[in-house]
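Project standup — Tuesday

K.O.: blocked on the structure for the chain from last sprint. Re-posting the sequence here as requested.
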Amino acid sequence: MSGKLLNGRAFVAAFITVALILVVVEIEVRSALSDQALKDWPEDSFLAHERDDHGRLMAGVFAARSEDPPPGGHVFVIGGSTVREGLLPDAVIQRGLSDALGAEAPEIHTLYSFDQTMAETARVALNLPLQHGDTLVIGVNPRRLSFGEPALAREFVASRFSLLSNESLRALAATDTIAAITGNEPWLSETRLLTPWDSLAVFEHRLFMRNWVEGRLNANTVGAWDNLFGGKLGDVDWLALADVDTRNVRRPLRYAYGDQALTKREKAEIAAAVASTRIDAFFEHSPVDFAILQSLIETQLADDVYVILLELPRAQSSTDVYGPVWADYETGMSALVEAGATRLDLRNAPFGDDDFYDLEHLLAPFRPDLTDMFFEELLGAELDLEQS
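H.V.: unblocked you, prediction finished:
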């Protein structure tokens, strides 16, 4: 009996010790990722692991929240990996905006993460310091509108953005349209303290964030990023932007893909996977994602924030394989435009199938061209909006 008692006490003591360690580490993590702590993190800190996507996004959100509003306001571009692969870094676009608009140019932030759901987009947008006259650009495509209730549950309960306040998102999710689709919203339950630890992925990406920011990048990678940020695009070693010495076993990020495309056979396999899974997922789940997006648009427009829906180029083979969804997709997009959003459609940009790594992610040499297209269209949309 005494042995059982001793064992029980030892178990309780061990449990308490582990719990205390988790609490202490959680406090340390929150402190390390506070607005002020993240404000000066350089973008090239997030290069070595796929979860750095989310680290960079969170750092960008916190940095924007901690700064004074710029004279020209903000342009926030939120999206998935096609935004990550398609556009050059913020500093390059910012120079163009400053050259065109002078001191009144808005400050641009691209806030991307791979496989970002519309729930995550909403969560990020509602935690940004958006004010009258700011612009919110949201990347849209059939893939991003194919995450339904299971994804909502995963992202709300074990969110990669669990550090972000959830109050605004709860209010958004309480709208009649979304509530009618999702029922009693059990996926909104969340405990604030231990949520970051209920998923190993969440724990891992925070730990990696702290490691990467401590300067583990090699000289070639640093040099490549210096050239990119300096506008020396002809000197950029695209493959060196990802530090293979610290990439672990996962793909490196921004940019994940250099200048070498997959083979035709590999692309055909991806197309077959899209046809067998993502088409049905779109028809099953897009009503939820369209509802979230529409509620988000209405919320932002009510605060005099401009909303632009950005559609980036895709390979013709991608357009073909998504053929069954386009009619429904266009109906949903038209409803969003009627709600007040502006549509910026670059799908007809002159890129061929060989210009894409797979079906949707543009290869490195074509990013300057797409960035120029995006910039010109954005500037035109901005001018139209300012005159309206």
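K.O.: great, moving the ticket to review. Strands lie at 74-79, 107-112, 135-139, 306-311, 342-345. The longest strand covers residues 74-79.
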